[in-house]
Amino acid sequence: MRTVILATALLAGSAVAAPAGNPWHAKARELFKQAIETPTVAGRGKVPELAHYLAGQYKAAGWADSDIHVMPYDATPENHTAALVVRWPAAGKATAKPILLMAHMDVVEAKAEDWSVDPFTLLEKDGYFYGRGTSDDKMGVVAVTTALLELKAKGFKPKRDILVLFTGDEETTGKGALLGATEWKAMLDAEYGLNADGGGGGFAPDKRPLGFTFQTAEKTYADYAFTTHNAGGHSSKPRPDNAIYQLSDALNRLAGYRFEPALNPTTRAYFGERQKSEPGALGDAMRAWLKDPANGAAADTIEADVGEVGLTRTRCVATMLTGGHAPNALPQMAKATVNCRILPGVSPDAIRDELQKIAGDKVEVTRLDDAVASLDSPLRPDVLKAYTDSVHAMFPKVPVIPEMSTGASDARPFRVNGIPVYGVDGSWGIVPDDMRAHGRDERLPVKALGDDVDHWVRMLSKLAG
Ligand SMILES: [Zn+2]
């Protein structure tokens, strides 16, 4: 998952900074080419190849074999993949618990016939890198790795262990992150995680900076089934009760239902920043809701905005439908899949109970997964300051805004298992032109890759130095 931010303009101001000569940017480009040209799509079995290539880079740079681990695992029986775990031990006695750096090596499928260029050949054109994974999330893998190689080459002495986890199935099952937060926790236990697959910056097409987000929370993904059963019969003799009508009545009630709006520390900080640059009705609604969280009408106005949808409450929506077995028979069964994106801290079981009340007694609501509630990470001032300072070194005065993602990432199992995670990506793109992650002709501004390397160097120098 990766979002480039903010659909609306926040601030007029500084232009994009001039590029600086840096041999590590050339190194990043070398790693990027190898990473993009290894098609790490689920089912193709190529993630272990990329993991071994990256492991070789750390080894060549002086990491001990005992601190580099390629961890094979099966995301599904058909998808053999791997994670890469690297440890940079503290020089001397550690002064604090480790920091965990996270990114994912796998990418979403990309078919050559759907693209205007080959998705698995790195192409530089008109100031952009094109290729699947250029923004989600091989840029993160490469920027983190290059920054560590650079720091090592320059004699940086970390005061605490720096741990790295690159997973191999974030886009599909997310099992690597779950293993990392549970079975492999002894290797990866950290004070907090910094995720390259979250946060980041956006610019308007006229180059105005819109802002960088600091991802501290994400909603919980959970699926439910709405099912109706009926004795059925011959369709020439309709019964008063009908499985399809009962299901559609329940779905219509769901369509009109509004879950209770609620602010959490992340969205409170987010709307606090957002309202500063929203003079109109939307901004008024933000200000009214911040002042009075019980003002449901204000929250509804915000929720109705295409750029803010999903941020004020849990949302559930029907996504799939089946029912009946013959055109001339009364349906014995009708079933809909309902997908929910639940506010952090709210139990998916509690949402099931709420859905059951909406659906009524003719429809059975069941869970289709065993997701547990995601948790938001506290807004740590030290991490927020390191991120903000580093962003401002690239783009002075650009807003840095806490963010709750409506989708899910590798951060979730760590947050659930007691390790707060912060999405602190330092790359950027043009909104909405460059929001192509998972889609066609994914790309990244060439300059954003080098910027991201420098960003991770600054962040780690601050937080681990
Ligand atoms: Zn991603």
Automatic annotation (TrEMBL):
Domain (Peptidase M20 dimerisation) spans 217-362
List the SUPFAM superfamilies hit by this protein, alphabetically: Bacterial exopeptidase dimerisation domain, Zn-dependent exopeptidases
Entry similarity comment: Belongs to the peptidase M20A family.
Signal peptide range equals: 1-17
Gene3D superfamilies the record matches: 1.10.150.900, 3.30.70.360, Zn peptidases
Q: Report the NCBIfam families cross-referenced here.
A: PRK09133.1
Q: What is this protein called?
A: Acetylornithine deacetylase/succinyl-diaminopimelate desuccinylase-like protein
Q: Which domain of life is it from?
A: Bacteria
Q: Which Pfam families match?
A: M20_dimer, Peptidase_M20
- Which of UniProt's keywords are assigned here? Hydrolase, Metal-binding, Protease, Signal, Zinc
* Species: Agrilutibacter niabensis
